[in-house]
Amino acid sequence: MERLQKVIANSGYCSRRKAEELILNGHVFVDGVRVTELGVKVNGNSAIQIDGVTLKTEAKEYILFYKPRSVICSVSDEKNRKTVVDLVKSDKRIYPVGRLDYDTTGVLLLTNDGELSNLLISPKSHVSKTYVAKVSGCFKKDDAKIMATGVEIDGYTTKKCNVKIKRYDKKNNVTFVEVTLYEGKNHQVKKMFEALGFMVIKLKREMFAFLTLDGLSSGQYRYLTIKEVHKLYSLVQQKKS
Ligand code: URA
User: Fold this and answer.
1) From the CB of 185, is ligand 1 less than 6 Å away?
2) Are 67 and 73 in contact (CB under 8 A)?
3) What's the CA gap between 149 and 100, in Å, rounded?
4) Percentage of the chain lying above the pLDDT 90 cut
5) Residue to probe by mutation, ligand 1, list 107, 158, 190, 191, most atoms within 8 Å of CB
6) Which of 22, 113, 182, 217 has the fewest CB atoms inside 10 Å of its own CB, making it the most exposed?
7) Measured between alpha carbons, how far is 176 from 165 in angstroms, rounded to an integer?
């Protein structure tokens, strides 16, 4: 049994918040009875109607996208900028799992599976995300040690992470640093470097959990295999218990 608003959202009909509004405003019927409270749970056999239309559960879709630069990580944009959803051809109501900044490139998952998406982005999930940052100046081993232990960003001390210096380009005075995080705050990588006095010039996410960009060029995408979807579920469900 699951909460009605969750079932509606997971069907791809609308977001969970919108589903709550629809319920509270009396648009939703379960087995012919109008529901106007949020506590109601339903099972797979319940017939759900919204404004007279029977809810169909959409087949789940899981896409691994190589996000290019200058694309907004959202379903729509008020400034009419190109969004990740514009670049992935799908007739499903897919949306990005978490966020990458407008200028960040790399691995991005898109899905209409609200349950998996919520589990992956939950602060409890600790799914690893590996980035390579090109930063201004010479980032030294001592900086890496401090960053790996935790730095303060917006009054929050970041959790332990892995930091590896890949290469220092003396001519251009920039360093390439690999950072693996097990949490995901807004603009976290940029803010962590900033906290230590380094500016991120370029940022690419090379891995999300075990998923890499192998075989994809910027702007391309592929569907996850069933095995990969199961593996993602088992990762987050282990962490939940
Ligand atoms: N950290 C950032 O600063 N930006 C991103 O896009 C992702 C992680």
Assistant:
1) no
2) yes
3) 23
4) 76
5) 190
6) 217
7) 6
- Percentages helix, strand, coil for the chain, rounded to the nearest 5? 25, 30, 45
* Whole-number Å distance between alpha carbons of 48 and 96: 26
Name all domains of the chain by residue range, CATH numbers in brackets: 2-54 (3.10.290.10), 62-124+210-240 (3.30.70.580), 129-208 (3.30.70.1560)
Please report the atom of ligand 1 found closest to the CA of residue 99.
Answer: 6
Concerning whether 169 is annotated as a catalytic residue, the answer is no
- The first and second tokens of residue 102, run together, are 């407008």
Q: What is the pLDDT of residues 63-86, one digit of tens each?
A: 999 999 999 998 888 888 899 999
Instruction: Give residue-wise pLDDT tens across range 90-126.
Output: 988 899 999 999 999 999 999 988 889 989 998 888 9
- Give the position of tokens 């900028």: 81
The β-bridge relationship of strands 95-96 and 105-111 is: antiparallel
Query: Is there an atom of ligand 1 within 6 Å of 133 CB?
Result: no
